[in-house]
């Protein structure tokens, strides 16, 4: 029992609720939301040290023993993602201060931002399937509000589609939960793992597993990504960066949890399907990224390539590949937020997202240009930046399990990603400088700090991999051995 | 009884799917709402319909009804209620701003 496990959910929730009351006081809201995010980050660092010394931390809500109450579980995988979430949301929040505009700030932007973080953190920490659904909904409802906040034509049009897609996938989630409950009689993840290991994962169970795969694929944009390019290019860039960094990653987290803890008995069916979907996602995403000449479109298609690549690691299902996936997931959250923020700054400066109308930004903004260059190298996995290590491990994993085609797709698509991102660099930053500084539509005042912070984060993650890999290995260990998770949740109590 | 419920759930799902696939935004919202009822009934059926007495300690029954699906449905109803309300508002606002309630025309064009 450890009450700290609940703090990453409680802090942003209460802060958001207080801010709803003090709607008019924008300066207070800014300061308080930064405080809440920093506090969440500090708590997740504290959790990480505790997990490292004492093992997986759990909390049984209301003191009800494991399968009866709701369990909150923090293992190293969750804690690492919690910390990354805090870093990403901190930077997006700082970026939003200078770019989101007075109107949105006065219409509950900050409370919704924090509720979104509540949902994300809740999904990472919960140990109960139905609670996972509730946390997903908390996150999604805030994202519905954030995507339509401002009410421009494009935003509203895209939000109708986004909301409908997510509502349908939430229904499927509930249906899958109902079937699983009928077959096992429990919803606690640890208990589910025990029960399914006892009765075996037969054909019916695998069908339900595939239903879960469909649900989470929709959220993670794994193959079912038709909703993503439209809805991620509609909202203001601070929000789009937050979505790109966090929302799809929660779906990925859920896939990892379900297919390492609960449905891990038939990898030749479920994990192969994940691998095929991941390969297709990488290919289609990379083709999209190459085809478009619009900054926002190129970046959103890059989100999909990342998702597909992380899933290649899960499909291989070896310790090396899992280490790579976890490392790459952390890298991907940071780098996707970073390239979205830089792309957003380019749009902010020039007033257009069409690459052919932008040229020579490096003349007036050298720092922005070089940081974009670093981000591009990191994204495509050039050593010593953070993308490299994950790519090496995942590719090694796919070769170990003899999914050569999957590893090959991963390597080919990284070249395509490099091409698509260099297209932005060469067209946007090189060339003749049209715009002098006083002709620009906006300033970079205040926008450079969050971008610089994330750039430093991706360099540190790459260069300081020695220090981080220890934590990642702990996360892999708990993912590959479900019995640690189960023992931590039940703590020696008798299982009914 | 379970069979009957399953048929009813299937009926609600097909009506909901039909409505979601239609063009008018209002019908889409109603379709989503009908599917949500179908899902709730499904959870109830999956927990097993009435098999024993009240799940209370004082009642001396040999078997008890499972109370968990009802707790789940209660949560699901609240969430669906909120989501449907929000969805209605977004659709209405889209109708006001964009001026169409036809989902075919929600595609938009490249020049915006």
Structure description:
Chain A: This is Multicomponent Na+:H+ antiporter subunit D. Chain A: Residues 127-416 form the NADH:quinone oxidoreductase/Mrp antiporter transmembrane domain. Chain A: Pfam families: Proton_antipo_M. Chain A: Belongs to the CPA3 antiporters (TC 2.A.63) subunit D family. Chain A: The chain crosses the membrane at residues 6-22, 34-52, 72-96, 108-124, 130-150, 162-183, 203-228, 237-256, 268-292, 299-320, 326-349, 361-383, 403-426, 447-469. The complex is a heterodimer of chains A (496) and B (112). With 496 residues, chain A is an all-alpha fold. Chain A is 76% helix and 2% strand. Chain A has 21 helices and 2 strands. Chain A has helices at residues 7-21, 26-54, 76-99, 102-106, 109-125, 129-148, 153-184, 189-199, 203-220, 228-232, 237-262, 270-291, 295-316, 319-350, 361-364, 366-380, 386-400, 404-429, 448-463, 465-480, 482-490, and strands spanning 57-60, 71-74. A two-stranded antiparallel ribbon of chain A has the order 1-2. In chain A, helix 1 packs antiparallel against helix 5 and helix 3 packs antiparallel against helix 19 (448-463). Chain A is globular. Chain B is mostly helical. Chain B contains 3 helices and no strands. Chain B has helices at 2-20, 25-46, 68-98. In chain B, helix 1 (2-20) packs antiparallel against helix 2 (25-46) and helix 2 packs antiparallel against helix 3 (68-98). The longest helix of chain B has 31 residues, at 68-98. The N and C termini of chain B lie far apart (55 Å). The chains are: A mainly alpha (496), B mainly alpha (112). Chains A and B meet through helix 6 and helix 7 of A and helix 2 and helix 3 of B.
Q: How are helices and strands ordered from N to C of chain B?
A: HHH
Main sheet attributes: strand count, strand direction, barrel closure of chain B: none
Mean pLDDT of chain A comes to: 91
Major sheet characteristics of chain A = 2 strands, antiparallel
Q: Mean pLDDT of chain B, rounded to whole units?
A: 87
User: Largest interface, and how many residues on either side?
Assistant: A-B, 32 and 33 residues
**Number of strand elements of chain A:** 2
Spatial separation of the terminal alpha carbons of chain A = 20 Å
